[in-house]
Amino acid sequence: MSQMKSIMAIVSIADRYIWPRNKHVRTFGSFKSFDYAPFNQEIDQSFQNEATRYFHNGPDFEPIQDSDPAYGEFIFKPRSRTINKWIGGRFNATRATINAPPLQIWEWTFLAEQLKKDNFIPEDRVMSALSNSGSLILNKSFEPIAMIWGGEPYTYAHGLKDATYASPIGKVLRDIEERMNWEKGSVSMVLPVQEKSRRPIKKLPTSVDITEKTTVQDVKNKLAQQAGGMDPERLGIFDPENKKLLKDRRALISQHKEVMAGKEILIKDLGPQLSWTTVFIIEYLGPILIHLSFLFISPYIYKNAAPLSSSQKLSMAMIVLHFIKREYETVFVHRFSLATMPLFNIFKNSTHYWVLSGFNLAYWIYAPTSYTARSSPTIDLVNSIGIALYVFGEISNLQTHLILSKLRSPGGTERGIPKGYGFGLVTCPNYLFETIAWVGIAFVCKSWSVGIFIVAAYWQMNQWAIKKEKAYRAEFGDKYRKKKSVIIPIPGL
């Protein structure tokens, strides 16, 4: 059985080119195909001649008309199989791409996964799968002894047309391992590489070798090394059909149907990259430093500047603590599916935080003419409501981020359906609680600048939430409970 599980059988060019054989034979056993579903392709007519030449001219697969041990070949005919010779079992099939230099051929592969021993099989009978090319012939001990690989039309009295050839299993294994680049059940193939960069990548190879276990990150690492040791994160891999970036670095190339259908990958130099963690730390560090700096630079900015009032200091504490919490989450909570982003993004993203929540808020909140500068230092009802909203929003936001973090393993890229604490109400409760926290800050600051920031931030978060809802529906289908409200729960929706 261990040998059985290690065998991959080579199959016919396409079922439309092979005579249907032995459909009346009693089925034995339960078999499952080796899982190469991502390689599924319709057979291309252009490959027919090359594939036929390979099957009929290979040194181990030379067809002969009679059994001859000297050639290591066996011939089996349907009539002989139906008269006390063997009982059939069936393999299910998926198609796979095999790189067989100098030819690249569409073939089928099989792997027997399970055999069921039934009492009705006499010990003296030799068993086999149905005579589709690629089926294994088994002896009475369930050991593979040969593989059926092809056939020729031959008319019999009962109407079946068939004469089937098979090779000893030892020759089949040697051919698989040596001539077809397979190792212990692993298929290897070559994908052409096409560049779509405006600026050519020096030394970029024209092809890359992959197996069914090769990930997107593996391809990037291989190409980057061959291209002179460039940063692999600069390389973007796109599928040739819809030109979309393959974002999941841990995804198997073989699982991308568009790539396998196009039989090539597109490569683009994405430019200098920064890790998401680095970008987030820089983004959030700006507002922290800007707000704290107004403790010292106010006399140099405002005329008749006075020490900050208690309300202004409270506002500063709430804003600074908000971004310190974000820094903590960036380092210890968030798990990013993408490793990097373009270097330019740090300037775009920092503009939002450094300008809108940094200079914009600080300049107006800490001004001598602001409401907080003139307000009573005591904690009144409005401030109390603001503090309560702020604390609730920040703690709840952290809780939702912890839930999201647990959906992904450390360093992983997998996605799941978030559940619990707010996720039953809206798509992104983390954005809801973020908004509540900032409304609390607005109650304390009483500045129109905070209102502008809330509107801008909510608009952006709403765009992200809509995309997230669409992504959940597309990826999880009926498993995901669709939501009409993405941030703010609306009764009746």
From TrEMBL:
Record EC number: 1.3.1.93
Regions that span the bilayer: 436-459
Protein name according to UniProt: very-long-chain enoyl-CoA reductase
Catalytic activity: a very-long-chain 2,3-saturated fatty acyl-CoA + NADP(+) = a very-long-chain (2E)-enoyl-CoA + NADPH + H(+)
GO molecular function: very-long-chain enoyl-CoA reductase activity
Cellular component, GO, one term: endoplasmic reticulum membrane
Membrane disposition: Multi-pass membrane protein
Pathway info: Lipid metabolism; fatty acid biosynthesis
Function field: Catalyzes the last of the four reactions of the long-chain fatty acids elongation cycle. This endoplasmic reticulum-bound enzymatic process, allows the addition of 2 carbons to the chain of long- and very long-chain fatty acids/VLCFAs per cycle. This enzyme reduces the trans-2,3-enoyl-CoA fatty acid intermediate to an acyl-CoA that can be further elongated by entering a new cycle of elongation. Thereby, it participates in the production of VLCFAs of different chain lengths that are involved in multiple biological processes as precursors of membrane lipids and lipid mediators.
Record carries keyword Oxidoreductase: yes
Family matches, as PROSITE patterns: S5A_REDUCTASE
Catalytic class of the enzyme: oxidoreductase
Main location: endoplasmic reticulum
Classification of source organism: Eukaryota, Fungi, Dikarya, Ascomycota, Pezizomycotina
Gene3D superfamilies: 1.20.120.1630
Domain of life: Eukaryota
Organism of provenance: Cudoniella acicularis
GO BP: any one term: very long-chain fatty acid biosynthetic process
Cell compartment(s), UniProt: Endoplasmic reticulum membrane
Keywords: Endoplasmic reticulum, Fatty acid biosynthesis, Fatty acid metabolism, Lipid biosynthesis, Lipid metabolism, Membrane, NADP, Oxidoreductase, Transmembrane, Transmembrane helix
Stated family: Belongs to the steroid 5-alpha reductase family.
3-oxo-5-alpha-steroid 4-dehydrogenase C-terminal domain residues: 340-489
